[in-house]
Amino acid sequence: MEILTVLLLAIGLSFDSFAVSVCSGLNLPHIRFFQAAKIAIFLALFQAFMPLIGWLVGNSMKSLIEPVDHWIAFGLLSLIGGKMIIESLISSEEREIKNPLHIKVILTLSVATSIDALAVGFSFSTILDKILFAVVVIGVVTFIASMLGILLGKKTGPKINKYAEILGGAILIIIGVKILIEHLLVN
Question: What is its main location (predicted)?
Answer without folding.
Answer: membrane
